[in-house]
Amino acid sequence: MSSLQLKKPALHPELRFESKRLGTVVCFSPEVVAHFVKHRQQGRIKTEIGGQLFAQFVKNEVRVIRATGPNTTDRRGWAWFRPDQRIQNVEIKRLFENGLHFVGDWHTHPERKPSPSSWDLESMEDCFKKSRHQLRAFVMVIVGQAMFPEGLWVSIHRNNGFEKLAINMNGAVSAIEYSSKPQRMLHEG
Ligand SMILES: [Zn+2]
Question: Contacts from 73-76 at CB under 8 Å and sequence distance 24+?
Fold first, then answer.
């Protein structure tokens, strides 16, 4: 059938992360993973960029299927990023009408293995104010320069602190396949 020939193989696997504390799985669809990869801070991309994460809730899973941003009106520099909150609030309302819940933020860092800055951790307070979904935590993704999953920070935040999520090994086979792609290594170093 011709439709089979047109169907491209998924370039990126779904990535699954697990919260030991909440028993929740946070997974990122292939499209969302592709969005992160595309915006990694390397090559021509000289500034931090980012956006918002939107998900559907299925049983104990938070399925992140949409990553928005960057917006042209965001303010950004080499190691900082301030999104346009007016546009972000409009996004939250618009996607909520389509059944997608705002669950967190993503942004890039100019480092191989990303970890949150103190500002990143403090800004999670803002996120709580914006959120009104049933997830009892807020997702923060930081996209580093190294290949995934090494180059991806995923944490969930609550009033009383945060938890760095571990990649779920059931999905790790495809993650290893992904990380061995040679063209990505040319930019490393
Ligand atoms: Zn940051």
Answer: 74/49, 74/50, 76/47, 76/48, 76/49
